Amino acid sequence: MATRDGFYFDNGTAALQHGLKCAGAISPPNNITGKETQPYDVIIVGAGYAGLTACRDLCIAGYNVLLLEARDRIGGRTYTAEVDGHLYEMGGTWVHWNQPHVYREMSRYDLTALLPSHVESSSPNYCATSFEGKHQNVDQMKLHAMTEKAFKMLCDVDGKSGREVLPYPHNPHHNPKAKHWEQMSVAQRLDQIKAALTGDELAALQAHLSSICGIDMDKAGLFDVLRWWALGGYTMDGLYETGDQFKIPTGQSNFARCFFEESLQSHHLKYSFNTVVTSIQDQGNRVIVNRTWSAKRVICAVPLNVLRKVAFEPALSPSKMAATRPGNINHGAKVHLEASSSALRSWSCASWPPTRVCHGSGDGLTPDGNTHIVCFGSNKDFLRPEQDAQDFAADCQKLQDMDIRKTVWHNWSKDPFSEGSWCMFQPNFSFQHLKALQQRAGNILFANSDWALGWRGFIDGAIERGGRAAKDVSSELDTFRKPAKI
């Protein structure tokens, strides 16, 4: 079945397809018969991993749940598109056993056999670079050493590789000293260390940082980079192994369906897809959604940049609304290319400053034996999606002679239900706003990876927040089901 989301551009014929085959597309789009008794115990708004986790946990606990989703599919900013028999992860992809919440769920659904994205077993095993207009092919190990030196220098803010400033990565505000670095942009930190780096080392670092932050270095918060560094074990190898190496062979949409199907099997789930939530009213004894459905509690699991589109009554607190104004600053792009032949399986590229592509690498082979390349870069505002496809292909072809057959992607910045990619914060944001984003508003709870404590912006962070919200709701509603003690 197909979803409305995603683009496929045939580079040979210049034909564009909007909407891709996806295991996460749900049919029928709703199972509401009109005979349901209201209020529901819980209404969950959003069927990304946070919403799906809360939904599954509450359904199997015996609560009657209504799941509302604006898209025609589950997964939120994560879904798997199938094009000509090959799977492309359009959003969140990589998982790891050091991501505690996601790995627990993978174990639950017997999905711990992982597929590595990047290998160094074929030719050419080099990185094609364009640093400040200078093109060269750099041995992978040499580039690794350059980038590692620069990355470690960037993150060694305390002489202990960041371990003193961020001793507990899942409790990022534990050390008050972290606030000093949280107020700093990546560009300001680069200014502090650039004299100790060569021009190529600095460019290589910035290319990698651009693929992480998805925005200009002067707007990106250093604290988010330090958090990723700490979560990865305070090394560059650890950061990329945990966040950029292993994926589920059957795809993220298959993983998401495990949550959804278990919810359905409980016989406590009603759902409605293609349903945009525009209003949530907390009336004290119940919560009304879209002036149609009512429940004892609501879990709102929409992304940070979309919160302002929902009319809450009473209005959200000034502190929570203040957090939505800068919001998630990441508008980076993720684009898949299929290049003829298997020769580029171990190839990668890095560019600084980028036009569109800042980093790319081989990510497996298609059924035709061609190389699947995944690229990260800037998401500029173009009027036509064909321009996106042609620009990314052209950038890679400047760095490497290749015949690109297909381009597959999703523009998360243009998506009205995300308005951004994986969550990154600007400087001086986390200490000010993170707690407010996590706080509930009366009978309305909020669950999304955008305000996770640990792997924020990752699937793991979404599951963290969804599980926490479900536990809070269950603890409260359970008091109504227990007989009073005498």
Automatic annotation (TrEMBL):
Q: Please give the Pfam families that the UniProt record associates with this protein.
A: Amino_oxidase
This entry's Enzyme Commission designation comes to 1.4.3.-
Q: Which GO terms describe its molecular function?
A: monoamine oxidase activity
Taxonomic classification: Eukaryota, Fungi, Dikarya, Ascomycota, Pezizomycotina
**Under what name is this protein listed?**
Amine oxidase
Its top-level enzyme class, in one word, is: oxidoreductase
Which residues bind FAD per the record?
E69, A70, V277
Q: Where does substrate bind?
A: F376
Originating organism: Aspergillus pseudonomiae
